Structures are given as C-alpha cells and as structure tokens.
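Q: I'm writing up a methods section and want to include an example of the input and output format. Could you take the sequence below and give the corresponding predicted structure tokens, formatted cleanly so I can copy it straight into the document?
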Amino acid sequence: MGKILVIAEKPSVGRDIAKVLGSTKKEEGCLVGDKYVVTWAIGHLGMLAPPEAYGPQYKAWRYETLPIIPESMKVIPVSKTKKQLTIIKKWMKDPSIVSLICATDSGREGELIFRYIYEMTHCKKPFQRLWISSMTDTAIREGFAKLRPGKEYDLLFASAKCRAEADWLVGMNGSRAFTIQYNTLLSVGRVQTPTLALLVQRQKNIDDFVPEDYWEVYGVFPNFQGIWFEDHIKNTRIQTKEQAETIAKKIHNQEGQIIDSKKEQKKQKPPLLYDLTELQREGNRKFGYSAKKVLSIAQTLYEKKKMITYPRTDSRYLSHDMVPMIYKILRQIQKGPYQKEVEKVLQLSQLPLTKRIINDSKITDHHAIIPTEITPNWNALTKDERNIYELIVLRFIAVFYPDYVYQITRIIIHVVAETLLVEGKEILQWGWMSLYPPKNQEEQTLPPMKKGDRVKVLESKVEQKQTQPPKLYTEATLLSAMENAGRLVDDEVLKEQLKESGLGTPATRAAIIERLLQVGYIKRKGKSLFPTQKGMQLIEIVPPELKSPEMTGKWEKALTSITKGTMNPERFMESIIRYVKYIVEQGKKKNPTIVFDSHQKQKRSKKRNYNKKTFSGLGNCPLCKKGTVLENSKAFYCSQWKQGCSLTIWKNSLKSYGCSVTPAIIQQLLKEKTIENVNMILPQTKEKCTATLYISDKGMLEFKNVKRK
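A: Here is the clean output for your methods example:
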C-alpha cells in the first residue's frame, strides 16, 4: 500500500502533525512514517514571475513597454527556499506516494501556497484538504478523520489567484508608470495606496483645521452641577466671553425650579467574540502593540502554545456543533486566574447561546478566535503573550455574562430665564462590564429630585474651551477604517455587514501598514500614524480611482464573491486589466507642481555613523559593473536600475539565517568580496554555525563553507 504526502505551511506545524500521525523518522526536510510522509513549505515557495520573465524588453523600466499584461501569469520558485521545493518535488514524484494532503493554513493564502507548489512541480496526483481551526492534537486527529476533497477548495484558490495577480498587475504597472514619470522610485498598490489615501486625507483635515474659542457656563448646586444650554441640550457653546460672563452673573446665587425630570434605562450587550482585526484593535488600544505584533503573538499562541484557535479569521461567531466544546473550554480556563468569573457562567442553568454567539451563517472559513480546550499553561507565556491571551479569555467569558444595565437621569432647571441641564448615571447591573471595571468613574450621582422642586445655584463658573482638530489615526482606528472601506463605524452589527467590502483582509492589513512604513510613505509616533511628505505627494499625483477606498473595497467584496461562487474570476480579472490600462494612461499626465525630493536619502544618511560614501554609493555594482550600489528603505540596488540592472539585495534577505544586512556589510562585501566567520543559524534546524558570506553571480547574498559550532 502506498504512502500519503502531507504538506504543511511551516516546519513547526509539520512537526506537530507528524507527531500525531506517528511519522517520526527524520529525513532532510521531512518526517517519514509507515503511512504518512510529512513535509512543509517555508511560507511561500512560489511567487509570480517578474516582468522580465515575459521578455527582455520588460527588464528596463520604459513607458513604451507599459502596460505589462501577460496572457497567463508564470509562477517561479522563491530562490532562498528552492532547496525545500526540490525536496517536496522529489516526494511528489516518488512512486510510493499515491496521494497528497494539503495541510497549509486553512485560508486563502494557505491555499495559494499549496496550489503554487502543486503547479510548479507539475503534480497530477489526487489531493485532499485538511481544514482545522486549532493546532491541538485532538483537533489534528479530528481534522484527519474529516478530510475533504481538494476540489471543494477550487473557488478559494481562484479567489487567492485573482488577488495575487491583481496585486501584481496594479503594483508592477502603477509603480513603473509613476516612477518613470517622476524620476523617483514610487510604489503603488491596489490596497496600500487607498490605505495611504485615508491617512493623507486625515492629515489634510488636521492641517486645514482652524480652532475656534468658545465658552461654557456651569451652575454649581449643593450636591451636583449643571451646564447651561440654549434651545437644545447639546447646544452648550457660547461664542463670546462677555455673553458667558453675563449669563454666569445672572444665575449666580439664584434659586431655580426643576421643570423637567426624566429617567431612561439603557443596556449594553456583551461584545462579540474576537476576529483578528478586532483583536489587533484591542491590542493597539490597550497595550500600544502594532497590528503586526498582535498577529505575530496570536500566531505563536496558535501554532506553538496551542492555546487559541486559528487567528487569521474574519468571523466573530461560533457554530452550533461547537456547543459541547464551549463547556470543555470553560472548564479548562476555570483552572487559571479567572476561576470565580468562569464559575458564574458554569452555574447558569443554561448558557445564553444567542445569535450574537452561535450563528452558522456568519462563518465562512473559520469561527471566532477563542481559547482551545487544553489546560492553559499561563506560566509558559511571555508578558506579551499573556496580554493577548488574557484578552481572548476575558472576551470568551464576557459573551456569556448578562447585559450592562444603567439608568440615565436628565433634569432641566429653569434659573432666571436661563436653562441648565443636570445629568447623572446610576449602574443598575454591572453584568459583563464587571470584567472590565472602568478606571475612572466620572459620572455624578444625583440625590432624589422631582419636577417642581426648587434648588439654589451656590455659584457659577465660566470655562473657556477650544474646538479640536480630528485625531491622527492610530493602528486601531486605521484598522477600523480599512475594515469598513474608509467609513469609521462603531456599531458592531453594522461593522459585520460592511466587512466583505473592506480594504484588504484581516490576514493582510498588518502587512499593508508595515509596507507603508517600509517604503517611507508613513511614520509612526507613539500610537499615532501620519503620512510623510512623499506619501502626501504620491496621493496628489495618482488618479482618484487608485486612491479610492470604496473602489478597492468593492474589489475585496468581489474576491469574496469568487470564493462563494457568485462571481466569475475572468470577469474580475477583466475589470482589473481595464483598470491597469487606465492607470498607465493617467501616469502620462504629469503634475508639474509636484517635485519629489531627490535628496531624501542623503538627508537620512547624514544621521548614520557608517562611511559617508552612501551619498555617492556603497561601492561598484557586482552585476553590471557600471553603476554604484545605493540604499533605500527596504533594499540595496544599482544606480543603473533604469537601464536594466536587476541588482536588488533585500535588507531582510538573511532574516531566516538570524543575520541582518546593514550598509556596512554591503560596503565590505563590495570591497573585499567575502566576509569570513559570520555567525548564522540554519533555518530548518536552528543549529548555530559560522560561514563565509558573499554576493553570488546573480547578485544574491549567499553562504558557503558552513561549519556547525
């Protein structure tokens, strides 16, 4: 009987699956058992080919070659992980392998990773799909017991393929068109440019804002205070200091009468469970974490600690078949620091499993992020991991708590022909809010009062205030704007309705923000994000459609429709091709008022301590021998790039080897050709080694003479 090849997305996940399947024999890049061979990708092993793969005419950046629209897109191996692809291909072609199991992450990107491997290796063997939402041993076993035919995910692959190709077409053509026109390296993208437009528009609103002074008058009574208003309770602003002082003097030490008294009971339902975007927002609001950091922590809690379910989800609901698991999870987290809080839930005769918690129609690929049913090892968590895990645990408990109920009292007092509003708040039931006690309780409590009672103004006071400009985006508020395609929405139910037409997906939004930071279009200061001059200039020159959050949101909705089978992929790509042609045409219309600062790199490099040759280059280009090697925010490149030199050394190219690529290292390599005894680690085994670093004939950083320590 033949064997089955299981392909995971990462080595750590592959090892976990192999342990459950009993595949324990170690071989290069895989683990072998009697029935299963478990191997893995290292993220994406395949990528869409660069323009020059479609013809030498596309190597140099020239306007006459645009738009670049290949008849069919080629997928090529990622050079730094080609060895692992070779290992997978060998097993795919092995006669002992009769079928495959796709065990990459259960989502759009995970599907694309596997299908690219399947395509590049020209594999024809049948495959099934492992679809799980937790990395616990139990979940893996259950997943293998319920494997699904690979064909069921063809539409998910179609959506992923359309997304990747659309981003390539827009990014490659748009970036080349505007770079050539403005003689400055400019990066544009289907999602990143509309996201940048949100930040730029907010900055413009702040810059255009003119603050205005206004005054408010307060009357102080024996046990409370009220604010003056005119016509409507929200109309409390007085335009001149003189008028405010006149009103204050008029009511001072005067007796008034209560002409209206109303009580209104309000309730606030528990919040919905977390999806990734809401978790990232909360992590940013509460701890100042970036969206990227929250995702990284959540991924660790999912993959390595196995304490939470799949984090890259856009759902905030659970399914009916999970009800028995809910009880198991509650009993497990009861063993941690929230024992008393969980007891209150377990003591209920019946859990309040409303549609705000259990709703099959609101689940597509995965359910909400919740704790898993394993006993949580709180002591094994770092401070950051504990912070995020605690958010997830608290939210899971909170959804079963009663409503937060309070009463608002509004009293209107008539004092010498003027009216004052007195408001008080009384908590009737803390409910779920008892899990999130407010730090400052600012609402005043009022003594018993009724219509017709007379009260005296003991003193009056005037406060000068000023209108405030809009606030800069934080990652929390930007994620909200991206989720709702530019419409800032607080209502959770409305958010759910707008989700399908957002900018990007929960899994990609963090990367989009990081990309904008890397290319120098935005900066981060504390929690705030703001656009740079270059970012604002880019938004000035691109056409309205390229910076429209609504248009990109419609595309994201179309990609979701492809997954559901309600839109034809060809129709979507036809709209993208028309759009690309439009962008290229618009790129010809140069805005003469926009001049990009060609000295930006020089100004930045002055702050560094390394050799000041950065201004004229770090050294001669090892590929074309004509240009000099320059630096931008993400890579080192040749000054002859417009003439076709393809040298690009990415700053993160040695990250998996535990090494950083600095200007000093590049300078030394260009001068001395090699650097001996560089400390590094082997990506797959994490073994510590020393090696010789050099630039290959293809312009890539590579190691040789590797020696294990």
